[in-house]
Please model this.
Amino acid sequence: MKTLVVSSKSSNIDGVEALIKKAFGSQDIYLKGAVSTEAAVACLEKDWFDCCFVVIDDASENGTPSAVLQELRKREIGVPVVYLVDEKAEQLGLEAVKDGADTYLVKQDLRSDLLYQTISAVVERHRREIAFGEMLQALDKSEERFNALIKSVHVGIMLVDWGGHVEGLNEAMERMTGFAQADAKSFDDFSVLLFPISEERALLAEKLNHLHKAGGKERSLITLRTKYGARRRVMMRAAPVARPDKTLILCALYELTGEQEIQEAIGSANIQTEQLLQAVTSILIGIDPEGVVTHWNRVAQKVFSIPAEQVLGRAFSQCGIGWDPKPLITAIDQARTSGKAVRLDDHKFKRSESDEGYLGFSINPMSDHKGKYTGVLLFGADITQRKRSELQLKLAEQRYKLIFDNSAVAIMATDQAQSVVSWNRFAEEMIGMGNEEMYFKPLAELFPDEEWTRINSEMDQNEEIRDYVETRIVKANGDVRDVDLAITVLRDLDGNVMSWVAIMKDITDQKHLQRLKDEFIGMVSHELRTPLTVVREGVAQLSEGILGDLNETQKEFVDIALKEMDRLTAIVNDLLDISKIESGRVELNKRFIDVAELMRPIEMRYRRMADTKNIDFKVEQPEAGTKIYCDDEKVTQILLNLLQNAYKFTGDKGTITVAISQKEEWMEFRVIDNGKGVAKDELSKLFDKFHQVGRTIGPGPRGTGLGLAICKALVDLHNGRISVDSDEGNGSVFTFLIPRLDGKTVLEEHVDQAIVRAQKKNMGLKMCLLALSVFGVHADPRVFEMGRRLQKYFRRNMVKAYNEILLLDDGNVAVLAEIADHQEGEAIETNVRNALKTFAKKEKELETVDISFKLGTSSFPEDGLSTGELMLKLEKAVEEMA
Amino acid sequence: MKSTLLVVDDEPPVLKILQTRLKASGYEVLTASDGRDALEKIKANPPDLIVLDVLMPEVNGFQVCRTLKDDPALSGIPILMLTAKDTESDRFWGAEAGADAYMTKPYNAEELLTQIQELLSR
Model:
């Protein structure tokens, strides 16, 4: 800090210098005193000072107070000047400021901090504002002063030639950019270093070029890059300066003051705002407080087909749009008075002579930085299209609502949390609840707990039930109704379920009737059985001659009666069968059985029958050892039924074949005959109840009309399929398919169900796998037989303790038992081990073979909660048993 | 030596025809018309085989069967259940009670006789 203190009294100089030293503390201070105006001017002309401090005690001193100022102005020396005046002569300070002094201070108020602030502020201002002109002027004065000035100013200075070569830069510039003199010299074009962005460089070149042409002064904002890569926004002033050998450009770079930065920011913000306003895809109209249009963007031009020049500067109510301006004026007033945005929806306007459209507006009041209202900005959109689709939607909604309300089924829709949010009249009636009770009722609460669990298990992977399931609902009054239930879901675009829609049909009455019918048939057939037995047996005994000999006519009649009795018996049996199946009273007793074993009794029994007509009866079976998982009694019944049919319609010396083969995931059974076949138009009705194949009035073979219906029902129970193909006159092929399941799948299914049952009773589950062979490997027939004996042994000896004892297709035996706790599980394992040992010992005695078993166990819930986990544990746990 | 069969049924016509049929096939036939009667007759004079109806007043067929099978002295007598009940659970309970065979009405005389022969030859 270089300060020149001017005073006629050396005591003043000393005092001020001491104060300045105190104020600036440890800073580098250079002070010089001048006792006269002349001395002061001489100093300032020769050297460069940061500040000139003039002390005036009274008007007489130093002549007029502004003598120094006048001298400086005359010599074009720009240095900040601060006056120090006596409080009695404060007007001298004011005069000095008027004459161009930077400020004045009053002696009596003088404190070091005030002095520091004042000098710093003045110097700072001067550095930014004045130094440049100073430097240019200094050139004219003396080379010496110019150099001193450049060296000491805090403004970044560089001297470049017209080609951009940097001739020199000062210390301030070094500080500002991080580049040293040496760096500058080593580059041909220093501007590349300072302005690495080519656009900036081009801008600089243009400015320099302009400068060259204009020969004047230039100031502009420019971005430079420091040595360390930081960007700096600076103000650059530049002017040509004549040096002894050539003309150079003096570039002074100032860091931006706070105010400049703000102004720059505002400037760029304004540009951005304008760009933004043009870029918006809404209609944008600016209206000033007088109602004159100030903005009219491209969208407005397009929607209203009115170019901006026709509208800007005109009253908006007369801008030529075919609309009623009154609602808009009201809305604008509202926005102005409330200071808040106002919405104006469905504002009608004429798009053309015949076409009416709708606009939606938000009217935003604007104000300047002082809060003065400056008009409104209207953001709007042409919502005609939306309005029209809304209308369409509303119509569609109404249409569906009508259907929804008047459907003769109960419909309920839930929210994401499965609470009922809308429903129709029939739902209300069915459940017997009013609005209040129904709203937000969790869907689950409408069903008994176990039914809801079942419903959830029936849902497919889309969480839907496409085919109706039969279930029950609980009415508000506690009554239980039977319903058919279907569930569909509505999803959002991401696939999240937004709503469940439950559709229900009350089938209670229907079910009741069905039950009555079932009971009736069951009762009637049952009641028929005993008399039927007596009558048939009586007639049979007559016919057989047990009760004495009959003459020929008597015998003939008795035999006819017996035959009809047999038919009646068959009808009663079939009726009972079908009613049992239809009422769900038939449970399949499925097990793994060797196909050959299944076929053996059928073959024996049927061959006798076939022989009576000399029918060539053949059985084609899959490879030995092939297992099928089914209720073998039921499959036998199906096959015998089909075979009896074939027998009926096949003539003497015909051919009947049973062909069994594995077809992908099915076991296929085919009963093929070359009998008279079935007419095409009868094929579809063949499996209907009471439909008799090829039945015509008059003599001929007659059945009960229920055989095929029973076959179909039994196949359905197995989740199989049955079909018929026939070429009339050349025979028929009846095909039925039973799913092929392996032991593992079957065991998994059983475990699944066992877990559900155990959970309901709040119990655990113990699983033991007794392995005679490894999963999936086709077993030796002896192993399967051994497994069967083991199962039988377990069943006979342990039936009370174990819930399920399964024989798997590979001869392995699985035991599933519900347990109350861990101890019970352990006890069961010990039991099983002991039983196994006893069995093995017995087998050894019987068969004289050494048997080794493997035993694996797994428990729910300790070893896992899912069937998969439990199965894995089970298989892993299988270990050799001695 | 003729085998003695006891036929138990609460319906006289059934008893009658069974008796005739079995006698014609060469068996000695005794009859009882309810469970209690049957148990008394069996204890007094154990037959070689019992043909037992299920639905009878007071003591039903399952109960008779269980009582006999629980009695070591009588458990060896083969029991053939002959009934109009033929649901799976009836069969199960029949087996559970210890019945050696289970046949439904209306029966086929030939099958009945075969079954009896088989049980007697065990």
